[in-house]
Design a protein that fits this description.
- It is a single chain.
- 74% of the residues lie in helices and 0% in strands.
- With 283 residues, the protein is mainly alpha-helical.
- The protein has one domain (2-271).
- α2 (8-30) packs across α9, α4 packs antiparallel against α5 (73-94) and α8 (162-185) crosses α9 (202-243).
- The longest helix has 42 residues, at 202-243.
- Residues 277-283 have low confidence and may be disordered.
Length: 283
């Protein structure tokens, strides 16, 4: 979509608009929206930060759009995963997620280290410039995504409907991305709106990811969800490279080792998890 429109910012906004439209339609048709609003009125009042998870997604898109061309996708991915895994460890330690408090045990720290090492190994040999400012922003954006997962999970818990949490997330994120798109590309897409039909479907995948995470984070915790996402993304990228490799890209031993390590990281953190310490969740 970015290539078709000629604008990363507009592509991101379109992506979210499509995802939001699908979520609203599904939430209304299934009755989830009515049930969720009724539950929120009857339940404890959500904390202010529970409503703002979508801002992290918008920040991730903005930082990635600025950093990828200058520091390279591989190095950007390493920085994002460092932020996501480290942030997830801190979020679970603080008990911000609906799964309760999960102390930073040795197994969980090892899982984080393995995930970061896996992405780093996969990035070996890739070109990119080390820019401290952008690198820091990417790490912070990754950490913000960990908070986003906790916020969406808490909202899903209080509403009783993951679809409602995902819809709120997309409303906030889409609003921020539309503002960014107007500021950066207010004159419209340089290449026009004539994008292939398949380009418009990315938002549906994004919506399904956000809704699924809002549902499963209550059981897995933020770190468990984050590592599962990293493993799935790595394995999916490997499959795409094998089936339809991008020009100039090839599957290397580092790529395969990286995918294997992410799967090991998930196994370690899920099979050796300490019991969560439930109690009053910080608001």
């Amino acid at each position: 979509m970015s290539r078709s429109l000629g604008s990363v910012e507009l592509a991101a906004a379109v992506n979210n608009v499509v995802g939001l439209s699908a979520l609203v339609a599904l939430a209304v048709a299934s009755g989830a929206l009515v049930r969720g609003v009724r539950q929120l009125r009857a339940a404890e009042r959500p904390a202010w930060w529970h409503w703002l998870g979508g801002l992290a997604g918008a920040l991730l898109v903005a930082v990635s759009a600025a950093a990828a061309p200058r520091m390279g996708v591989a190095l950007l991915t390493v920085a994002l995963v460092c932020g996501q895994t480290g942030g997830s460890l801190a979020v679970d330690q603080a008990g911000l997620s609906p799964a309760g408090r999960h102390p930073a045990t040795a197994a969980r720290v090892v899982g984080v280290a393995l995930a970061v090492a896996a992405v780093g190994i996969g990035a070996l040999g890739k070109r990119g410039d080390l820019e401290a400012g952008l690198l820091t922003l990417a790490v912070l954006a990754g950490a913000a995504v960990a908070v986003q997962q906790a916020a969406n999970g808490q909202l899903a818990r209080l509403a009783g409907e993951p679809l409602v949490a995902a819809t709120v997330n997309f409303v906030v994120g889409t609003s921020a991305l539309l503002v960014l798109a107007v500021v950066v590309a207010g004159d419209g897409p340089p290449n026009g709106w004539d994008a292939p039909p398949g380009d418009w479907l990315g938002g549906l995948l994004g919506a399904s990811v956000v809704a699924t995470v809002a549902w499963v984070v209550r059981s897995l915790g933020v770190l468990g969800v984050t590592l599962a996402l990293v493993a799935g993304q790595s394995a999916g990228a490997l499959a795409l490279d094998l089936v339809a490799p991008a020009p100039g890209e090839a599957v290397t031993a580092g790529t395969v080792i990286g995918v294997a390590l992410t799967l090991v990281a998930v196994a370690i953190t899920t099979t050796m998890r300490s019991p969560s310490r439930h109690g009053r969740t910080p608001g």
